[in-house]
Amino acid sequence: MDIRNDPVSIIIPCWNGEKFIKKCLDPVRAQGYRDIEVIVVDNGSIDGSKKLLREYPSSLALRIIESTANHGFAGALNQGIEASKGEFVLALNLDVELLPDYIEKLATVFNDPSVGSATGKLYRYPEQFGGRKVLDTTGHVMLASRTILNRGDEEEDLGQYDEKREIFGVCAAAAMYRRAMLEDLKIRGEYFDKDFFASYEDVDLAWRAANAGWKSRFVPEAVGYHVRRAFGWNATEEMLSNSKRNKFLCILKNEYFLNYLIDLPVTFAYSLDHLLYKHFRNYRLFFMTAAKKIRAFPRALMKRFAVRRTRKISPLAFRKNLHYCPKDLKKARDTFLVLFSLVVLSYFIGAGKVFGMAFIIFFLVNPAVFHVKRRFFTKAD
Fold first, then answer.
1. What is the C-alpha radius of gyration for the chain, rounded to an integer number of angstroms?
2. Could you list the mean pLDDT of each consecutive 10-residue stretch along the chain, which spans 381 residues?
3. Per-residue 3-state assignment (H helix, E strand, C coil) for the chain
4. Residue 11: which of 58, 53, 59, 65 has the closest Cα?
5. What gap in Å lies between CA 88 and CA 254, rounded to an integer?
6. Could you give the angle at the alpha carbon of 217 between the alpha carbons of 252 and 79, nearest 5°?
7. Cβ atoms within 10 A of the Cβ of 152, count?
8. In the prediction, which pLDDT does 232 show?
9. In the prediction, which pLDDT does 272 show?
10. 8 A C-beta contact, residue 88 and residue 170
11. What's residue 2's pLDDT?
12. What is the pTM of this model?
């Protein structure tokens, strides 16, 4: 099957992206793949974005969907997909610049009907890293701790990701999806979960796709550049709390209970370490995230029941997507040794004394607590 003549719809969410519009759309207009439609969904921008979009050269046949409010990245993608006609959909961040053959290169892997999504090799802009070729993403990888990472994030490209291969999922900054997969995974009229707003919406879709038996591919020959406007120190407190909430919602909606039980030593150790050494650095962020998780829990639980109906593989079959990080295994080992030592010590001197000693040591020695008043934002997990 040759899909190179099938139409591709490019969906670009826009929110106050005036300075990125030309840099994003010019490479789209230069794509060698000819049968494309371009839809920009404006999320109620208040800068000059709408004016620039309306004045953009007509040779691109640009369609603009204007919203009066910001529905988030997920909501904008849903609007664009609903309005599109292509057999394939390319989700594209406004701060991404594609090389002219990006779509053409991705299209080749969809000859396999089991492939539901694909992504290329995205770099950060060279000027951000002193001219070095630093990677942004080569797809998503899931660790046994249920941490989702961008493969190659901030690594210098030395050819370590030049193999075309199957991956867990794709980053929606520049990801192509098969419409048949999107329709297969559609839940209550949504392709991407609009409750996620922005962050982890692509992870949620990738997880649902993997559970339903769809494959995801990485194509190193397809290349693009990504500014990644909000990450690490640039991320606001609101963004970080949303990211942490959305990670929780992803697990609640998609996790197989058996798999979580198998990996409980790793997930427990990671969560405990995260609580003690990261959340204590910012009490406000901790309680903000907890409140958001509680509010979102009922809806996510109801969606879990809908998601379960789309599953087509067994828990053990899904485990091919899990990777064991040596750091997480070390955390699990150390946590077990500490808990075992506390139990043994409690037997000899009493549980009350052990708890008191642990409490005092934690609050006197723990560097996270010592620096609790410092505003310290870590990279979103």
1. 22
2. 78 94 95 93 93 90 91 95 96 97 96 97 91 95 95 95 97 97 95 93 97 98 86 64 93 96 92 71 80 94 94 96 91 84 83 76 55 40 40
3. CCCCCCCEEEEEEECCCHHHHHHHHHHHHCCCCCCEEEEEEEECCCCCHHHHHHCCCHHHCEEEEEECCCCHHHHHHHHHHHHCCCCEEEEECCCEEECCCHHHHHHHHHHCCCEEEEEEEEEECHHHHCCCCEEEECCEEEECCCCEEECCCCCECCCCCCCCEEECECCCCEEEEEHHHHHHHCECCECCCHHHCCCCHHHHHHHHHHHCCCEEEEEEEEEEEECCCCCHHHCCHHHHHHHHHHHHHHHHHHCCHHHHHHCHHHHHHHHHHHHHHCHHHCHHHHHHHHHHHHHHHHHHHHHHHHHHCCCCCCHHHHHHHEECCHHHHHHHHHHHHHHHHHHHHHHHHCHHHHHHHHHHHHHHHCHHHHCCCCCCCCCCC
4. 65
5. 24
6. 60
7. 21
8. 44
9. 81
10. no
11. 58
12. 0.89
- Cα–Cα distance for residue pair 146/265, rounded to 1 Å: 12
* Domain residue limits, the chain: 8-233, 235-370
CATH superfamily of 8-233: Spore Coat Polysaccharide Biosynthesis Protein SpsA; Chain A (3.90.550.10)
Q: What is the pLDDT of residue 208?
A: 97
pLDDT at 239: 82
